[in-house]
Amino acid sequence: MMTTHHNFWDTALALSVAFALGTIIGLERQYRQRTAGLRTNVLVAVGAAAFVDLGIRMGGADGSIRVIAYVVSGIGFLGAGVIMKDGGQVRGLNTAATLWSTAAVGAFSGTGLPGEAALVALFILAGNTLLRPLVAFVDRRPLRPDTTEALYRMHVVCHPEHVSTARDLLADELEHHNYPIQDIETLSEGDDYVELAALLVPTSADPKELDTMSEHIAQNRDIISATWSVSTTN
């Protein structure tokens, strides 16, 4: 009977720690209006703690190890559900990573290691708060096309009747300069003109070479204009 009570209170402590730490992590997410907010993070932490605690009670250390492995993979599927593609950007990666890390907080709580659980929670909060100014600083730095692996596009504008010619010019010019093409897409289309863009395979490029290619393509009488652009996202 004493063992039963001891196990019960161990479970109560583990779930309480997971609940408290999940609340702290979730509050920060809720404050920033993220997809997975307060309740989601609390439930992930408590659920992970409950399953790991159950694994310990039913199968000892070996049982907890197996359950932890399932928790890791299971939270991975849950995190995939919050990742969305919004136009050319992918959103939700940080939210998914936070959920995955919150499960680790629950797993530590479930194994009876509240100090370690609190430490993991502290690092999660630091990653989501203290690193934000550093991320903003890096994002504000100007992009250097000569050293950054990024996505380059060669743009051409032509009349609708010359689209086929423009495609061939893009392909031939880029192939001649050993720039592999991932795709040629139509960015805009009207009655008077069409804008095409050749998306290059992610690589580093020489801006002077890109300028030379643009000028050469623009000299063709069927082309209205030609230029290039670079970005860090597709």
TrEMBL record:
Coiled coil: none annotated. It holds the Pfam family MgtC. One of its GO terms (biological process) is methylation. Keywords: Cell inner membrane, Cell membrane, Membrane, Methyltransferase, Transferase, Transmembrane, Transmembrane helix. Belongs to the MgtC/SapB family. Virulence factor required for growth in low Mg(2+) medium and for intramacrophage survival. May be involved in regulating membrane potential by activating Na(+)/K(+)-ATPase. This is Protein MgtC. It comes from Acetobacter orleanensis.
